[in-house]
Amino acid sequence: YNITQTYFIFKVIVCELNRISCLVIFYFTLYAITQIHLTVDIIFDMINKTDQRFMFERRKYMNQKEKSLIAKNKIMSAAAKLFSEKGYDETTMQDIMQISGLSKGAIYHYFNSKQEILDFLLNFERESVANYLKALVENRELTAKEKIEDVITYLSTNEALPELTKEKWVEKVPFALQDMLKNTLNVLAGYVTEILEQGNRNNEFNCKFPNELAGVLVLLIDIWLDPTIVNSDYTEMCRKVDFIIVLLEKFDTPLFSNDKCIEIKEGLRRYYV
């Protein structure tokens, strides 16, 4: 071969090598992209499966929680009905099982005794009152006096309170009175304080001791007007209501109208039927 032929052959070889290199790079890049796509698909598949497992567990948990609430509500409703009709002492766990429609195992899964059920009823009622007051305090449309009047109506129409009172819950549940006092002074009084302070801001009245008066007021209503704690007949209870109204007026906080005073007394009458 001469120099020209040698150069030509060399050039052809270089071109082939370049072509082969390009093909190698192309196929390697294609392989890498394919692997990346596969990896991404695997990652998304793992995420999807994890999400599905999470949703399944979440639904399972929610279903269990929902079933638990339904079962407890059935037990509570049955117990409240029986306590009202037969009395706490005459009611048995067997009675509650029959009325609720739940098995013995289901009942004892949640409560070991009717005393525990009564305790649960009391706690439920306390939480209901606290949640009601919380929502009432946050209501920006009502005045302070309207909120207090709403509280009176709520307490006067709450059927659970007189039923629990008739069963002398204080004697049935250990530390019930202590727990109620703590809830009254530490939770309920705080909400009443906020209502009184709102009344001061809006010039509805001029209460110089809103926090202190709120504590006294909830104690008088929750303890002093409770027939299971203080032995008083209906006439004495009505006089106590009159005293509370005069007391509030002395502190420049006239919360109750005459109509609401009558409503309070009518509400108390339920405890003596």
Throw out a few tags for this protein:
273 residues, mainly alpha, 80% helix
Structure description:
- Helix 1 (3-85) crosses helix 4.
- It is flat and about 100 Å long.
- The N and C termini lie far apart (129 Å).
- Helices cover 80% and strands 0% of the residues.
- It contains 11 helices and no strands.
Q: What is the 3D shape? A: flat
Structural class: mainly alpha
- Determine Rg (CA atoms, Å): 37 Å
Characterize the quaternary organization of these chains.
Answer: single chain
Helix content: over 70%
Q: What is the averaged pLDDT score?
A: 78
Number of strands: 0
Specify the biggest β-sheet: none
Q: What's the helix-strand series?
A: HHHHHHHHHHH
Uncertain residue ranges: none
Strand portion: under 5%
- How far is the first residue's CA from the last residue's CA? 129 Å
Quick take:
The protein is mainly α and 273 residues long.
Walk me through the topology.
Elements: H1 3-85, H2 93-100, H3 104-110, H4 114-138, H5 144-157, H6 160-166, H7 169-172, H8 176-201, H9 210-224, H10 234-250, H11 258-269
Helix pairs in contact: 1-2, 1-4, 4-8, 5-8, 5-11, 8-9, 10-11
